[in-house]
Amino acid sequence: MEILKHALSANALLTAFAVVGLVMWLSNAISKRLLFGRVHGSAIAIVIGLAAAFAAGLWTGGDKGVVDIPVFAGIGLMGGAMLRDFAIVATAFEVDVVQARKAGAVGALALALGTILPFIVGSLIAVAFGYTDAVSITTIGAGAVTYIVGPVTGAALGASSAVMALSIATGVFKAVLVMVGTPIVAKAIGLDNPRSAMVFGGLMGTVSGVSGGLAATDRRLVPYGALTATFHTGLGCLVAPSILYLIVRGIVGG
Amino acid sequence: MTISGVALLAICTLLGGFLGDLLGSALGVKANVGGVGIAMLLLIAARLWLTRRGLMTAGVKFGVEFWGALYIPIVVAMAAQQNVLVAARSGPLVVIAGVAAVLVCFATVALISRIGKKGETMDEIEAKARARTPSAGEPTV
User: Fold this and answer.
1) Whether residues B57 and B88 fall in one domain
2) Domain-located, residue B141
3) Helix, strand, coil: what percent of chain B each, to 5?
4) Is the pTM of this model over 0.90?
5) What is the per-residue pLDDT across A15-38, written as a single tens digit (0 to 9) for each?
6) Nearest CA in chain A to B5
């Protein structure tokens, strides 16, 4: 047992790859077999991650989730700011500029609204729940944009880990709602053509929520929605810790 | 070479981070302002430039796309190290903010989709595409 522990801790990052890989595999199996693709595997994996962090917090009394358990220390490196930013930047590689131009003004409008509206909603609710400092309000508001924009914003502004967790949880909850809710509301919101799928991707933003929700609605709409959605996170990461933060700070002060 | 793709990605990320810090101090914010977003724009620009020059080799592509494919697992690892215990204590905020944000966005999609001309539905587009190809029937891809 001691020898196994040593082998796992000495190769912390490899242990993290193995553990997260197993979680991803398990989540995809749950998604396929138990939920019939209704909820995307990645959303389930993130929920498992949050649940593990919750359990670890109870067990260790620490504030860094599973990273407080020595064997899982590598998760801290794998999910830390360095590799996270590295991987997010890499996703920009898939954006097709020519295709994106076709989305045109309506896509841009949807992207702008899709960043600003959830941010306003999230910020107002943060204020309603008693948060008064601009950093926390902005981080929670950004979490309502997507679960990536939330922590990126929080990390940039130096938000507390608790606020970061709230922000991620809000974004993940939104992604899950989008995945489950899209097929239900698809008809009512006119989601049956590429144009509205692009509007949808720009407004909803969460790539896993959009691709999961559209896949459950009509597979052919997925690339159109994902196209605008891939811009969403970048746009959010650009404006939330900058312009939006400055506006919030201007309103609440400090 | 695969490493050139990884290096390109690293350079864009580092440069974006640097410019974000620079922008932050210029704006008087003690934070990185949009570093990730700037890095993404740099990477898109680099890809267009490399493609135009014919320098976009399979190795370069693989070096970048490998990390892009790891993005969801990395987000899972990130979720697993958050202070969820504290967040759970203020649970209602998450539920209310999530539901409200999604409802507002769904409503806006409905609104924008109705503004302006109605686009062709996927069924209509496929029907047209099928009519254009004389050998109608199942696509043989």
Assistant:
1) no
2) no
3) 75, 0, 25
4) no
5) 999 999 999 999 989 988 887 766
6) A90
